Give the backbone structure.
Amino acid sequence: MKKLMIVFVFSVLVFTNCQQASETTENGTNSEPKPAEDLKTTLSKLENGAYEAWKKKDGKFFEGFLHDGFVGNGPNGPTPKEVTVKAMGDNPCEVKSFKIMDEAATEIGDSAALLTTKFEADYTCKGEDGKEFAGPSPSYAASLYVKSGDSWQAIYHQTVPASDAKGETPPAGDGEAKKEEESEPDEMTKTLGDLDKKFWEAWAKKDGTVFEEGLGSNFSEIGPNGVLDKAGAIKAATEHPCEITSSSFSGSKAVKVNDNLYMYMTKGAMEGTCGDDPLPKGMNATTIFAKEGADWKPVFHTATPIA
């Protein structure tokens, strides 16, 4: 079980340290921001409070900080609130120093906003064998916040190690986590799954037209090389060195944020080559879809490699 908790610390909620926001209460519920405070400042303060709670192994904080519908994503796939809260309290890591930077906030729907960050940290964790190892740093992260009444709460979080990250990422859990059987997908999962698959296929074919026409106007993504806007994402999708021969998807699920915003999570696996680098054995991906007129369009995407 220890391996599972370590993975949660790395990729479900890798919250490092900064001063806890004065607007944050002990149980993680956050008060309405001051009128003069911009969105980036507000969400950065909330995120910083969570980083401090991670450092202190304060699982109780996350009971209020996380929305009841929270789902994190990482090497072990989608992770609900109750599992994340326990993982934050039980995490086997010790933080020595840290730095959060490059915060950017974007409204992506009614009472919903995305915060992206880059962070560096000097921290060690204990593996299953009791040996200590350095955690990966730097990394890029994304958090989706929703406004519940007068408070902002996190409903999603995911991290991706930077291309120049040092340290170790433990492998995904090996069956210790509770496994759910594949079930017939609901209609929204089918709808978004069909759309999502078109983008994966277009990426494999380096077909920029699908991305130009299909992505939302304020689309962004995070990956090993940082945060990309729509133009940067299209460039990356059409100029990558990979040659894909086949792909498959499993464990897909659409998670409702509100009537006009959904998170679509899936595990993707591809066969092929990628220049001199091997393809990961799989990726746990998240795409956030927003309703634009009559169409569902991606406004954010990321994928965490499965070690």
